[in-house]
Fold this sequence. Notes:
Elements: H1 12-19, H2 23-31, H3 38-51, E1 70-75, H4 79-82, H5 86-100, E2 105-110, H6 116-121, E3 126-130, H7 136-144, E4 150-153, E5 163-166, H8 168-181, E6 187-191, E7 201-202, H9 205-210, H10 214-224, E8 231-234, H11 240-251, E9 261-264, H12 267-279, E10 289-291, E11 307-309, H13 312-327, E12 336-337, E13 340-342
Parallel strand pairs: 1-2, 1-3, 3-4, 4-5, 5-12, 6-8, 6-9, 9-10
Antiparallel strand pairs: 7-8, 11-13
Amino acid sequence: MDQESRPQRPTLADVAARAGVSPSTASLAFSGAGPVSEATKQRVLQAATELDYAGPDPRARSLRQGRSGIVGAVIGGRIIHSFRDPVMVQTLDGLAEELAAIGAGMLLLNDAEEGMLQLSNAPMDGVVLIGCSPRLDNSVSVLSRRGMPIVSIEGLASLGVPDITVDNRGGVRQEAEHLVGLGHEHVAVVTLNLVPSQRRGPLTADLERQATTVPAIDRLRGLRDVFPDVGGFVATGSSLEEGRIAGHAILDVAPELRPTAIVAQSDLLAAGVIRAAEELEIDVPRELSVVGFDGIRVEGLDYDLTTVWQPSREKGSAAGRAIVAMLDGRDPELEEFEVRFHRGATTAEAHRSR
């Protein structure tokens, strides 16, 4: 019987479409993991019943040989924080859709110290390491001992893991050149978490030497390509509140000591910096220019943010295709994504009100 004449078994993607939810939500609801409401879970299970979908197909081509039918998605830090970050949600959704196409489920894990035991024994056929994590080397070390396929998103090539990459350095370089064109000389940065200990505080040479978070390192390098001596503040993650804390640390000083521009390594951090500026009655962009990174919509931000857009969902999809290929015994196709600079309304010519 040829492939086209075989009866088509319903997939998780079919269940998601029938329930009116994303593939990632359907995967979480069906597996019983993750922050999914009971009403949504019941809607997904009802759709599965109507479609006669019983779960991941052990005969799927990438899951033959009696495997579990589960692919792990490992994120940095606590899972609940990741669901507040639109970039992470979009990335997970792209990954889940590719896995759903072969009937595979997705198991969310974190790479914090308490999560290492799960990495070492959770029933999985392969793993995708996702996002801005300073612990990729630890995760790879644990998972490599299990001999399973591993794909990373914005990881370290030196770890020997197939990697999906984004031009973080080039994107921030464009932002820095934009600021130079506006006459800015005194610029500060708010970085993502740099080290596993999640240390919040001033950016120091020591912290930079210890840094292991690849996107943060590359974005800082892009800024230093234009502003070699830039200083700033290290956040513990990508959130509005972390940006607000960093903004106060940088801006709550004498006016002559303030930077005229702040480069935040995420849009959520940038939104927090803007909130801090508003609380300190510093006008954006007349007195302070602010740029972000990601190209997402931030709830409550009444500005057209100057930023760099990155293809978050496409990153997840590419990682999904790569892990599916490895499960099927094929070489993965690795992709490097370009980014796009967006000039919004949060940057202006350098100005000091003194």
